């Protein structure tokens, strides 16, 4: 573990300079408040719960939700001149690398009268009342895999996002004009960036991705200037670093992955940012990285001011299936055995659910929530599932569940304190996994294997009791349904998600009864909610299109 | 086209034989996989570089064989003497034209793991040639950080016991399938054992038509409709009835009553029950159905 450029700083609390909050921008102190009327950061608030205290849409009236507006966005390569050109064009690319049409997968920030929408290389500010574009910024990329962008961060009067080719770009939140951009990782080393940055105090937490055997890291930048404050590596980078004994040698560790590509959660009481790390690399050939491979596939708490690790819990030791544990963890103030506890829960891509003490890192619960997950031999004494060596890729093929996309993936889960339930999609596919590169040096990146999807054990939507890890209700989707939608839950007793069969749906959060649906297509992000003119809105993306529903 | 990765295959083959896995490697002659040069694959600088000078690269390749190969491997992925994999080296990836690799080649260095690389007595021109060759190999890397694909080859996956597989088949599969009926000549139709295994575990070829799911719908009035299921969600059932007409039914809980007949349900139910040994044995058995 190594931490660079430590800058200790204090949370600045700046009051808006005028009574109109959207003019003064976003006060970072507001992010500590529970989610209610607006949606100012990736998960709405810092807890990761995606639970809104808004209760104007309820189990009784959800069937009266109606469409307020819908807009579609051209998320491919825009014309850079002419009447439809973006208001501002930046970027270090030549414009020769053309990008295809992308789905909207990110969180859409709602602050004041604007929504901030992203697709890779694109940011739009649109009117919160009718979706019309106020400004559009486009970044000319140098390349990289344009697989998604998880959204922007707002810092006072600027909007900050990551580009695929590893720049952090700061825009004027009112006009979309670029303030600055700075490189956050090496494009030559094949890093690529999709994460929504997270503002905590005067820190901007930034993650990146990489498939080519490179070390993962979380960085903190000054959100005002873009200067690096610290960098936390998720794998040992020097002899003697903590965790080096879980790798065969330093070279393996330094190429060991553990990328940080999904936002985490923040606990103001401990000042810990808690996040999950990606899979170890090479992804499918563990032969040259025997050991648990810390701190890949691990839940980690770092002090936001120093970047020093406070505790860790590994959710998938020695992963060999590309199942990272990057999923956004959820902070829960709960009661275990009659004792109030400060907890964090996560439903990992590998099909296991965990509840951990978020102050100490002490393990509380491990259960299997992926009904057919078959790769672990047993749960270790410390609560980590133990990988069965027979389920690593082999030449004649091994039948593995889940498939490479996992039981869950980046799509955010949700937690409702009213029900005490953690809501997640549960995908139970099967792969035949073949080793195609039996070289004792291992392969590279995600190479060296052939994986063939052979069927499904049935997908579901699952409501898990955080105290026991057991589902209290579970809705099995009809064959072919389930999959790729995130989750929102509200004080109205509702859970919103997608059914994978072309519907946006609402469940009763308590018992899983399906209360409402509308056939707008397959949901591509997580639903969100906010209050405008006293009316609760529910916003969701389907591919390139946004739908804003309203309770009249 | 230079078959520059032919030798790496030999490395793998000799290792396999050495550890006695008994797997045969079948080189599929003439099926060399070409690196995909579509833009979608040229995501990174290493893959976006224009092709270098052919003669310079050939010279670099020869020099690499003399000075570098013993430590860094015939395929640049590391060798027996402890040289690291160059294809994932951050220094190599950042290098543009020898300005980073050159000083290391010329002066040597102590690696992060304590291994020492000795200085190589190469001229500036030779160093340029070696780095051009290394960049040329980097440009053939495959997707998602994978190594260059090299020549296509197939690993023998037939490791099961056909007699045990036959017993398993009789017990678990023969109520629907027969080696003298629907599966007659199966292994002749699907000659690659891996494809054969994928096909039977999946319950059909990836592209083949599945036997349709059918449904019988009983309306509250008692009227029934049967047909082939086109779509099914919690809210809607769409059928094509025997007359070829499109029929759709809103679903509200248990209304209307729907009875599904899904011929693939048996295959799905088996997935959590197979052991890998079952799968390998059945594949070995099915491979005898020529």
Description:
The complex is a heterodimer of chains A (552) and B (290). In chain A, the strands form eleven sheets. Chain A has a five-stranded mixed sheet with strand order 1-35-36-37-38, with no helix packed on it. In chain A, a hairpin with a 4-residue loop joins strand 9 and strand 10. The radius of gyration of chain A is 22 Å and the shape is globular. Chain A starts with 20 loop residues before the first helix and ends with a strand. In chain A, 2% of the residues lie in helices and 38% in strands. Chain A is built from two helices and 41 strands. The N terminus of chain B is likely disordered. A five-stranded antiparallel sheet of chain B has the order 8-7-6-5-9, with no helix packed on it. With 290 residues, chain B is an alpha+beta fold. Helices cover 36% and strands 13% of the residues of chain B. In chain B, helix 3 packs across helix 7, helix 6 packs across helix 7 and helix 10 crosses helix 12. In chain B, strand 2 and strand 3 form a beta hairpin. Chains A and B meet through helix 2, strand 31 and strand 32 of A and helix 1, helix 2, helix 5, helix 10 and helix 12 of B.
Instruction: Output the structural class of chain A.
Output: mainly beta
Percentage of residues in DSSP E strands of chain B: 5-15%
Main sheet: strand order of chain A: 1-35-36-37-38
- Residue share in helix of chain B: 25-40%
Instruction: Give the chain pair forming the largest contact, with residue counts.
Output: A-B, 72 and 63 residues
Widest β-sheet, arrangement of strands of chain B: 8-7-6-5-9
Structural class of chain B: alpha+beta
**Separation, N- and C-terminal Cα atoms of chain A:** 53 Å
Percent helix of chain A, as a range, is under 10%
- Superfamily at the CATH H level of the largest domain in chain B? Cytochrome c-like domain
Number of H- or I-type helical stretches of chain B: 12
Query: What is the number of beta strands of chain B?
Result: 9
Principal-axis shape of chain B: elongated
How many discrete domains of chain B?
A: 3
**Rg of chain B, Å, rounded:** 28 Å
Span between termini of chain B? 37 Å
CATH class of the largest domain in chain B, anyone? Mainly Alpha
**Morphology call of chain A:** globular
Percent of residues in β-strands of chain A? 35-45%
CATH topology of the largest domain in chain B: Cytochrome Bc1 Complex, Chain D, domain 2
């Amino acid at each position: 573990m190594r931490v660079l450029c430590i800058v200790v700083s204090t949370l600045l609390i700046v009051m808006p300079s005028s009574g109109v909050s959207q003019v003064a921008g976003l006060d970072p102190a507001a992010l500590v408040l529970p989610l209610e009327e607006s949606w100012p950061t990736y998960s709405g608030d810092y807890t990761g719960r995606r639970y809104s205290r808004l209760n104007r849409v309820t189990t009784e009236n959800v069937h009266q939700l109606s469409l307020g507006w819908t807009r579609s966005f051209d998320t491919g390569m825009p014309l850079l001149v002419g009447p439809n050109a973006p208001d501002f064009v930046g970027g270090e690319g030549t414009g020769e690398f053309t990008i295809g049409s992308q789905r909207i997968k990110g969180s859409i920030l709602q602050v004041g009268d604007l929504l901030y929408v992203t697709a890779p290389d694109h940011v739009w500010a649109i009117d919160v009342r009718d979706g019309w574009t106020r400004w559009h910024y486009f970044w000319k990329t140098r390349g990289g895999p344009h697989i998604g962008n998880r959204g922007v961060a707002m810092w006072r009067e600027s909007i900050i996002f990551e580009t695929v080719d590893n720049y952090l770009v700061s825009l004027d939140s009112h006009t979309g004009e670029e303030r600055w951009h700075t490189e956050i990782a090496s494009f030559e080393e094949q890093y690529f960036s999709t994460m929504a940055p997270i503002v905590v105090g005067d820190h901007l937490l930034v993650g990146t991705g990489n498939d080519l055997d490179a070390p993962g890291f979380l960085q903190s930048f000054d959100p005002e200037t873009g200067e690096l404050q610290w960098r936390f590596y998720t794998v040992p980078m020097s002899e003697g670093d903590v965790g080096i004994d879980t790798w065969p040698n330093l070279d393996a560790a330094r190429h060991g992955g553990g990328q940080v590509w999904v936002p985490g959660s923040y606990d103001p009481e401990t000042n810990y940012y808690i996040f999950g790390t990606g899979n170890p690399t090479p992804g499918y050939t563990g032969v040259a990285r025997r050991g648990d491979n810390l701190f890949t596939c691990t839940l980690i708490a770092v002090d936001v001011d120093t970047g020093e690790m406070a505790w860790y819990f590994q959710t998938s030791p020695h992963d060999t299936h590309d199942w990272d544990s990057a999923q956004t963890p959820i902070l829960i103030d709960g009661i275990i055995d009659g004792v109030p506890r400060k907890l964090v829960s996560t439903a990992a891509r590998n099909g296991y659910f965990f509840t951990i003490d978020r102050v100490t890192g002490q393990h509380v619960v491990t259960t299997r929530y992926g009904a057919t997950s078959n790769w672990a031999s047993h749960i270790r004494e410390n609560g980590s599932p133990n990988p069965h060596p027979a389920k690593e890729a082999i030449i004649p093929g091994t039948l593995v569940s889940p498939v490479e996309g996992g039981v869950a993936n980046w799509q955010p889960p949700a937690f409702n304190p009213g029900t005490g339930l953690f809501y997640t999609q549960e995908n139970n596919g099967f792969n035949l996994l073949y080793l195609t590169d039996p070289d004792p040096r291992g392969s590279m990146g995600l190479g060296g294997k052939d994986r063939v999807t052979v069927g499904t054990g049935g997908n579901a939507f699952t409501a898990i009791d955080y105290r026991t890890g057991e589902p209290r209700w579970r809705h099995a989707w009809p064959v072919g349904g389930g999959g790729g939608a995130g989750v929102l839950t509200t004080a109205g007793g509702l859970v919103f998600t997608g059914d994978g069969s072309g519907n946006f749906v609402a469940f009763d959060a308590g018992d899983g009864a399906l209360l409402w649906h509308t056939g707008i297509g397959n949901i591509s992000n997580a639903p969100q909610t906010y209050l405008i003119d006293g009316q609760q809105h529910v916003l969701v993306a389907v591919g390139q299109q946004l739908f804003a529903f309203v309770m009249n | 086209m230079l078959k520059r990765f032919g030798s790496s295959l030999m490395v793998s083959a000799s290792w396999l034989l050495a550890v006695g896995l008994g797997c045969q490697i079948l080189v599929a002659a003439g099926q060399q996989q070409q690196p995909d040069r579509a833009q979608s694959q040229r995501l990174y600088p290493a893959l976006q570089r224009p092709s270098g000078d052919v003669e310079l690269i050939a010279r670099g390749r020869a020099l690499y064989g003399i000075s570098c190969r013993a430590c860094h491997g015939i395929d640049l992925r590391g060798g027996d003497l402890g040289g690291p994999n160059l294809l994932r080296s951050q220094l190599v990836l950042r290098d543009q034209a020898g300005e980073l690799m050159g000083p290391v080649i010329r002066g040597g260095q102590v690696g992060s793991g304590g291994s020492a690389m000795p200085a190589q007595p190469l001229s500036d021109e030779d160093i340029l040639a070696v780095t051009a060759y290394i960049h040329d190999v980097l440009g053939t890397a495959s997707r998602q950080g994978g190594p260059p694909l090299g020549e296509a080859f197939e690993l023998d996956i037939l490791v099961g016991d056909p007699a045990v597989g036959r017993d398993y088949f009789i017990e678990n599969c023969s109520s629907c399938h027969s080696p003298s009926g629907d599966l007659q000549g199966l292994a002749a139709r699907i000659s690659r054992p891996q494809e054969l295994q994928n096909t039977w575990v999946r319950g059909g070829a990836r592209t083949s038509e599945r036997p349709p799911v059918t449904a019988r719908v009983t309306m509250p009035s008692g009227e029934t409709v049967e047909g082939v299921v086109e779509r099914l969600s919690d809210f809607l059932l769409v059928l094509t009835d025997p007359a070829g007409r499109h029929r759709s039914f809103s679903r509200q809980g248990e209304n209307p009553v729907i009875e599904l007949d899904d011929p693939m349900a048996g295959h799905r139910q088996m997935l959590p029950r197979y052991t890998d040994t079952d799968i390998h044995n059945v594949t070995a058995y099915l491979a005898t159905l020529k």
